[in-house]
Design goal:
The protein starts with a strand and ends with a helix. Helix content is about 35%, strand content about 20%. A 5-stranded parallel sheet has the order 2-1-3-4-5, sandwiched between helices. Helix 2 packs parallel to helix 5 and helix 3 (about 55-70) packs parallel to helix 4 (about 85-90). The protein has one domain (about 5-145): Rossmann fold (3-Layer(aba) Sandwich), CATH 3.40.50.9100. It is of the alpha/beta class. It has 5 helices and 5 strands, in the order E-H-H-E-H-E-H-E-E-H. The structure holds 1,3,4-trihydroxy-5-OXO-cyclohexanecarboxylic acid (DQA). 1,3,4-trihydroxy-5-OXO-cyclohexanecarboxylic acid (DQA) binds near residues 12, 77, 78 and 80.
Amino acid sequence: MSKNIFILNGPNLNLLGTREPGIYGAETLADIEKACAAHAKGHSLTIDFRQSNLEGELVDWIQEARTKADALLLNAGAYTHTSIAILDALRAVDKPIIEVHLSNIFRREDYRKHSYVSEAATGIISGFGSHGYILGIDAAAKLIK
Ligand code: DQA
């Protein structure tokens, strides 16, 4: 059976393409999903690509990743900077966790410079736009092969 990567997206990422395109780019989340699926296929991996604006739903999906994913890519959006609930859920996942951000969170506002997700992540990719998801799949593929 092929290995599976959960790619989870947090609040407001459903608005990609129209939301602050100068920061987040012109591509939609559907465009990113398509590119991720194609790239994962090249690694003989499947993906489960989801987005939610709800913190609890993201926690539920991270818990689901414990049994249904071999690796987890997470762009938690603004919950990155606020959510201990997401951090606790991630700490219970014994799989590679790749934190992804479209923008470089370290050259933006001070409140974006701390990430709870990073405390549980294997690594972080930030500032490469949607290509960060592709880099994240490459990193996950190497870690789980
Ligand atoms: C983001 C960065 C976060 O600070 C922000 O709240 C987002 C998107 C990114 O992908 O660059 O919603 O995670």
